[in-house]
Amino acid sequence: MGIQDIIEGKKQWRAHMARVKALPPDYQIVYKEMQRYLFKVGPVELTDGSLLSGIVDFFEEGVAAGKGVLELIGNDVAAFADDLIKDSRTYAEIYQESLSGKPGTAEK
What is the DSSP-derived secondary structure letter of residue 75? Predict the structure, then answer.
């Protein structure tokens, strides 16, 4: 990864966060909780940026439709996030596989 990639990544992240800050406060709170949870769980797809920007897209559509954030996702933020990544591999699974020496053996 070169310096230009790092700079471009920072620009994209700032643009992404500007979209988050444009959301109503309740949406921002839920987004930040989901982001914190997903960073902790560590789905592999998180690094390509499409998961988080997809959440913002979904939230922007909810705002445009005049819905509250909990109307969109329900009362359990973690359950909603888990459902988003249910078919995703996590870094924890990859680590467990590396310890056992057998690919695809990590339990879900």
Answer: S
